[in-house]
Design a protein that fits this description.
Helix content: under 10%
Shape: globular
Oligomer: single chain
Number of strands: 20
């Protein structure tokens, strides 16, 4: 989420200054698998039936913005994913669906030259859906049905709003509120009991597509929210169509009315006070 700097604090500083900054069939990429220990989120091999509470779990409740009076550059709170960290939420699949999030990818990454993030709900029979955002492309998938790729430069070092809207007749990909690709697609998303994973894709006991990058403000909706270009919200709101809402305000919590339990497997919670990644 975004929160502004404290006015009193900034004012005092000014006074002092006066005195003296995804593949459809398998969903697997070679060499892109990280196993997680379900008891503590460290490297290991969790059983697929692990209770969500074995991570660091937060029970979600509706919340209000933690904003204070605004002055200067907005301060952002977000989650950083380091190639092992992820969040898990109780699973569901729905059509129509709108997935949206704010993401930050930098280039190059010190380990392998790229950063990417994935959000996925993939069952053992290749059901469900997924979104993978890479440095130069995005891929939206209804597993066993279709992939919808779009070529967009994403590793810009700035926050980008990404949205995928699928209504059973067409698939639309948006970046920063603008349609970057649209195509005719049909069919439902196969229902699955798999968990929704933020920062990867669960497959049996492994996390596929482990993410390296930053994610802020995640919302999944049971409606086709956007049919044409729009102005993205900095902070998403809960409404009757919201399935999951994560503000990423330094904790793993679903702020939708559903209050899903969210398990945190090692997400690094950070605050950006204007070092070039503020929006």
């Amino acid at each position: 989420m975004l929160r502004p700097r404290n006015v009193a604090f900034v004012s005092s500083l000014l006074l002092v200054a006066c005195a003296e900054r995804f593949d459809v069939e398998s969903g697997v990429e070679d060499g892109d698998t990280v196993a997680q220990d379900a008891t503590n989120g460290t490297t290991g091999s969790p059983a697929d039936d692990t209770d969500l509470t074995t991570g660091t779990a937060s029970e979600g409740t509706s919340s209000t913005a933690a904003d204070t009076e605004q002055s200067g550059c907005e301060v952002r709170e977000y989650g950083r994913f380091d190639g092992t960290a992820h969040l898990q939420i109780d699973g569901f699949a729905h059509v129509p669906v709108t997935f949206e999030a704010w993401v930050l990818l930098k280039q190059p990454h010190p380990d392998d030259g790229t950063e990417h993030v994935a959000v996925c709900q993939r069952g053992t029979t290749n059901d469900g859906w997924g979104v993978r955002i890479g440095s130069e492309s995005l891929t939206m998938s209804a597993f066993s049905k279709f992939d919808h790729p779009a070529q967009v430069e994403m590793a810009t070092g700035t926050w980008r709003h990404v949205a995928w809207v699928y209504d059973g007749e067409s698939s639309r990909v948006f970046v920063d509120g603008r349609v970057v690709d649209e195509r005719v697609q049909s069919g439902g998303i196969e229902e699955t009991e798999a968990r929704l994973v933020i920062g990867g894709c669960m497959s049996t006991s492994d996390v596929l597509h482990p993410s390296r990058g930053a994610i802020d403000e995640v919302r999944l909706s049971s409606t086709a929210r956007y049919l044409s270009d729009f102005e993205p919200q900095d902070r998403f709101e809960d409404d009757e169509n919201t399935l999951v809402l994560l503000h990423m305000d330094g904790e793993a919590k679903d702020s939708s009315s559903h209050g899903h339990v969210v398990a945190d497997f090692g997400v690094i919670w950070e605050t950006d006070e204007g070092d070039g990644t503020c929006r």
